[in-house]
Amino acid sequence: MSTPKVISFLNYKGGVGKTNVSVNFAAHCAQNGKSTLLIDWDPQGDSTEYVGYGRENVELTVFDFLSENLHPEKGVNIAETEIKNLWIIGANSSLKNVEHLVSREEDTFERFRDLVHECGRIFDVVVIDCPPANSHVNIASIFASTNVFIVTTSSSDSIDKIGLVDQMVNDISAVIADNMDRDEYHLPTLSGIILTMAVENTVGLDVAQEHLKAIWGNLIIEPAIPRTVAAAYSVSENIPLMLSRQNTKIAIRYRKVFEEVLHRVN
Ligand SMILES: Nc1ncnc2c1ncn2[C@@H]1O[C@H](COP(=O)(O)OP(=O)(O)OP(=O)(O)O)[C@@H](O)[C@H]1O
Ligand SMILES: [Mg+2]
After folding, report:
1. 97-129 burial, b for 16+ CB within 10 Å, e for fewer?
2. Relative to the alpha carbon of 257, which ligand is closest?
3. Is 200 within a domain?
4. Residue 217 lies in a domain
5. pLDDT of 99 above 60
6. For the domain that residue 84 is a member of, what is the CATH number?
7. Which ligand lies nearest to the CA atom of residue 10 in the structure?
8. Distance between Cα 74 and ligand 2 center (Å)
9. Domain range for 82
């Protein structure tokens, strides 16, 4: 059986573009004929809104799947979005207690991973849009992922978190390797770093890029994603820009970055 592809986009820093990257990557996969599941793992429900599904339409969040031990089934408890090939386990504020659930019950990491890997057997790609913060919920997302990608802006407080996420991925990988049957589970790997909201032709961006490359080398995925109004507009319209603004500079850059992401995952 092939390994499920479970991809999470992470940074403990908030507002760095994680949701924009997650949703547009999921839309890119769906547009290219891959059956794709987007898991909104953030009670803000931003990716649920951005794909046009609507927070108010969410009947079951991951919280319900975990607390009721539900098995994922397309069209039964996993909803299809209006975007062809794109399915969602959405989020809204009812997910807010999940941090408590995950921190209180030790086996929740395993149960979340089992749920996500089950999803990985019925979808070609599973994408997890993670919340900000160094939280149990994000430990769970790393635990469940086959590939972790860090999303960062060029600001130092965003770049500073890369080392923490890298350390966490290594620690979790080591714990899994020690405790699990290696044949059964794939160890999570930090597979790339995506620089986004880049303000082009500025010294700040050049310095950030040089600094990132010096420390993280080939983990940096090029090109950087620019800061553009198209991104903000597409969010307010609730249509991923990969679908609504296919010929814009940002969509073209995203396409290159996402092809590299898929290359690294395969
Ligand atoms: N490339 C971009 N150009 C311009 N604006 C962007 C870009 N990417 C994201 N944004 C905007 O920046 C804000 C934060 O982006 P986003 O919600 O993707 O970040 P996040 O890391 O998911 O935030 P949070 O930590 O709150 O979940 C949003 O208003 C979004 O529309
Ligand atoms: Mg977000």
Report:
1. ebbebbeeeeebbebbbbbbbbbbebbbbbbbb
2. 1
3. yes
4. yes
5. yes
6. 3.40.50.300
7. 1
8. 24
9. 6-265
Q: Which residue has the tokens 């996420």?
A: 165
Determine if ligand 1 sits within 6 Å of the CB of residue 15. Answer: yes
Whether the CB-CB separation of 185 and 4 falls below 8 Å is answered with no
Q: Could you tell me if residue 163 is inside a domain?
A: yes
Residue 1 inside a domain? The answer is: no
Shortest-distance Cα residue to atom 27 of ligand 1: 131
**What is the distance in A from the centroid of ligand 1 to the CA of 257?**
17
CA of 18 relative to ligand 1 center, distance in Å: 7
Report the distance separating Cα 46 and Cα 240, nearest Å.
Answer: 12
pLDDT over 90 at 150, yes or no = yes
Could you tell me if the CB of 223 is within 6 A of ligand 1? no
Model confidence band, residue 185 (pLDDT cutoffs 50, 70, 90): low
Q: For the chain, how many structural domains are there in total?
A: 1
Structure token digits, residue 82: 């209006």
170-192: buried (b, 16+ CB within 10 Å) or exposed (e) per residue?
A: eebbeebeeeeeeeebbbbebbb
What spacing in Å lies between the alpha carbon of 127 and ligand 2's midpoint? 13
> Cα separation of 182 and 194, whole Å?
29
Q: Is 148 exposed, middle or buried (0-12, 13-18, 19+ CB in 10 A)?
A: buried
Ligand 1, closest atom to CA 16?
21
Q: Is the CB of 128 within 6 Å of ligand 1?
A: no
The residue contributing the CA closest to ligand 1 atom 29 is 232
Rounded distance between C-alpha atoms, residue 80 and residue 71, angstroms: 16
- Determine the distance from the C-alpha atom of residue 220 to the mean position of all C-alpha atoms in its chain, rounded to a whole number: 17
pLDDT tens profile 234-265: 999 999 999 999 999 999 999 999 999 999 99
Question: For ligand 1, is residue 163 a contact (CB within 6 Å)?
Answer: no
Structural tokens at position 121: 């057997």
Ligand 2 centroid from CA 131, angstroms: 6
